[in-house]
Amino acid sequence: MSLPPEKASELKQIIHNHLIKMNIHAKIRDVLAETVREDLDPGHSSLSEEDFLRALQCRGIVDDVMKDLHFSKHLTLPYYCSVSNYCISVLPANMDPARRYLYLQVLGGKAFLEHLQEPEPLPGQVCSTFTLYLHFRNQRFHSKPVPCACEPDLQEGFLLEIHREGLGDGSKMADATTMLSICDPVHLVLIKRDTSSETTLVSSYFLDWRTVLSSPSGKTSVAVELLGVGSECKVTAGVLNMSLDLYPPLSEILSPDIITTQQSLERQKTAEKERLFLVYAKQWWREFLEIRQANQSKLVKIFAQDENGVNRPVCSYVRVLRAGRLLESPRQAARFVSLLGLEKAPVVGGGGAGKQEQWCSLLAFLCRNKGDCEDHATLLCSLLLGFGLDAYVCVGTKPKSLAHTWVMTRGTDSTITFWESLTAHRYLHQAIDPDAPPLAPQPRPSYPYRTIGCVFNHRSFLANCQPSDAVELCSFDFHNQSQWKAMSEEAVGSVCSPGSTTSLPPLPPLCGPSLEPSAASNQLELELRYLVVEHRKDLGLATVWDDHLSYVLSSALAAYELERCTGTSCGNEEFQDAVRRAVPDGHTFKGFPIHFLHHNARRAFATCLRSPFCDEIVCCRGDHVRLAVRVRVFAYPESACAVWVMFACKYRSVL
C-alpha cells in the first residue's frame, strides 16, 4: 500500500524520535564492541553486515525496538504501523478492532481525453480542478482538488466503515455472508471546478465493492470506467484506478461465483419489481385518460431521467431527510435550498429549442452545488418531510406555459401553502369559487403558478383530474377521488421505498458548512476594499475609509438575512438611528446593499459596478468623502452561503 511522501517523512521522524528515546546508538555500540571482542576470529580482518545484524537479533535489540513501537489514534499520522517479520506495513488508522472496514484507495486517473491538450499548470497558477466525492452508508468524503489533466493525479485513500444491520449485534463483527447481503454501493461523483469557481458534473458512478469478499488477501484492484452525464451518459469520461482493502481480512472468503450469483439475483429482483410497476403505471395512465378528454394535456409526470440517463419513478427522488443540528426550522431549510444555484441541464446542439431533462441524484446535486428547479423542489420536499410536514412536489406551469416544479404543504386545518424552492418565498393558496356571483369578492392569487398536473412525495402520487388544472381553481382535497386520482401506495412503495430495489441511490446525509463565516467575511471585505481603492486610483480619486460607519452597516445585513429566512423584517429602526448618529449634520449618506451566492471578490465587485447606484457610491466625488463597506457571509450546510455586501458613503453637501 502506497504512503504519501509527507506521511512517509512523518513516519520516519516518529521512528527516529523513538530510537533516540531508547538510546539505541549506545546499545548498538555495546553490541558492536562485544561482537568484535568475542566473535571475531584472528583470521578475519573485518566484520560483515550480516554478522552484525545477526548479533543484534540474537541479543534481542530488534525485538525490543519493535515491541515498544506503537502508533495510536491520537497521533497526527493517520495510519497504524503493524510489524511482521520486522517489515513495517502501513494500514489506515482510526480503526476500531471490533468493526469491519473497507479502505478505498484512488491510485490516479487516465483517459480523460477532454483534457488531452490541457497544458501543465505553472506553480501558483489558478487552473481547473477535479474533486472526487464519495458516499457510502451514511458516510461522505471528498478528495483534495487536483489539476484537470488527461491523467489527473487523484491519489487519495478513504476509510469506509461497513455498518452492521439490525440491533443487538454490537459486539459481533460482520462476516462474509452478512457483507454479501449489504448491497449499498459506493457512490462516486466527479466534479470539475473551473478558474471562475463554476462547477460541472463530470460523472456519477455506483461502485459495487463486494468483489473484495472473494480475494484471499482481502485486497483487490479495479479500473472504474466513468461515463458522462445527461446527453453524454453513454460516452466514457475517463478511468479511475482503485484498490479495495478489507480490514481485518476475512478468515473465510467467498467464491467469485457466489458473489456473481448474488448480484444477478438482486438485479433480477429489481428488474421484476420495476416491470410490475411499469405495467401498473400504464394501466393507471389509461384509466386517468378515460376520465375526461382534457386530461391528455395535463402535465402528469410519472418517470424522470437521472444524470445517468436512467428512468426512475419521480417518487424515488423524494425521501424523508433530517438535517440534524444543521437546519433549525422548515423556513431555514427553504432558505438553504434557495441558496443552491439554478442551472438547467446543458444541451449539445438543438438550437436552444426545449431543454434537456435531467433530475439529479441528491449527492450529485449537493456536490455540484447547483441544479434545475426539480432538484431544488425534491430536496426541499425531503427536508420538509423530515420536519414532520405533509409536503408534496407539485408539477405544473408558470406564465408563458413554462414547465415548473415547486413544493406544497397541507396543514391539519386544510391550509395549503406553496413554497418556491428557488427563492424560499411562501404563498397561501385560496381557491377561487367559479360558481360565485360576478360581483362577489374573490381572492387574488399572489403566487406565480398557472397550472398543476400532479403532486407526489415519497409515498404518494396523485394526478389532477378536476375539470380545470388552473391552480387558482384547484381544490387540494386528496381524499376526493373525483378530483385527484391516486396511485396505489403499495405500488409506489414497491419501487420507491428505501431498500426496495438496488437501483435506488442511497440517501446521503447533509454535511456541515464548509466556510468559517467570520474569516470569510473579513477576507472578502479586505479584498473589496483593495478593489475599491484601485478603482478610485484609476479615476484619480483618493480613498478614505470610515471604519465606524462600516461597522454600523452590520446590523442592516443581519436584518436582511433574517428577513430572507423568516419573512419578517426587524431591526430597521436601530439601523436608521445609528446611521443618523454616524452622519454629521450637513452631510449626505448613500448606501447600496446587494446579495450574492458566492464569495469571489472580483466577480462581486464587477457585478456591483454594473449598478448605477453602486457605481455612484464607489466613484463618489465631493467634499470630505468617506467610504464604507461591510460584508457578512452566512454559512449554510454543504458549500451553500449567503453573502451580503453593503457599500456606503457620506460626504458634505455643497449647494
Automatic annotation (TrEMBL):
<dbReference type="InterPro" id="IPR056288">
    <property type="entry name" value="CEP76_C"/>
</dbReference>
<keyword id="KW-0206">Cytoskeleton</keyword>
<feature type="domain" description="CEP76 C2">
    <location>
        <begin position="94"/>
        <end position="251"/>
    </location>
</feature>
<feature type="domain" description="CEP76 N-terminal">
    <location>
        <begin position="10"/>
        <end position="69"/>
    </location>
</feature>
<dbReference type="InterPro" id="IPR028926">
    <property type="entry name" value="CEP76-C2"/>
</dbReference>
<keyword id="KW-0963">Cytoplasm</keyword>
<dbReference type="Pfam" id="PF24652">
    <property type="entry name" value="CEP76_C"/>
</dbReference>
<dbReference type="Pfam" id="PF24654">
    <property type="entry name" value="CEP76_N"/>
</dbReference>
<comment type="similarity">
    <text>Belongs to the CEP76 family.</text>
</comment>
<comment type="function">
    <text>Centrosomal protein involved in regulation of centriole duplication. Required to limit centriole duplication to once per cell cycle by preventing centriole reduplication.</text>
</comment>
<dbReference type="GO" id="GO:0005814">
    <property type="term" value="C:centriole"/>
</dbReference>
<protein>
    <recommendedName>
        <fullName>Centrosomal protein of 76 kDa</fullName>
    </recommendedName>
</protein>
<dbReference type="Pfam" id="PF15627">
    <property type="entry name" value="CEP76-C2"/>
</dbReference>
<dbReference type="InterPro" id="IPR056290">
    <property type="entry name" value="CEPT76/DRC7_peptidase-like_dom"/>
</dbReference>
<feature type="domain" description="CEP76/DRC7 peptidase-like">
    <location>
        <begin position="357"/>
        <end position="487"/>
    </location>
</feature>
<dbReference type="InterPro" id="IPR038765">
    <property type="entry name" value="Papain-like_cys_pep_sf"/>
</dbReference>
<dbReference type="InterPro" id="IPR056289">
    <property type="entry name" value="CEP76_N"/>
</dbReference>
<dbReference type="InterPro" id="IPR052299">
    <property type="entry name" value="CEP76"/>
</dbReference>
<dbReference type="Pfam" id="PF24656">
    <property type="entry name" value="CEPT76_peptidase"/>
</dbReference>
<dbReference type="GO" id="GO:0046599">
    <property type="term" value="P:regulation of centriole replication"/>
</dbReference>
<feature type="domain" description="Centrosomal protein of 76 kDa C-terminal">
    <location>
        <begin position="517"/>
        <end position="652"/>
    </location>
</feature>
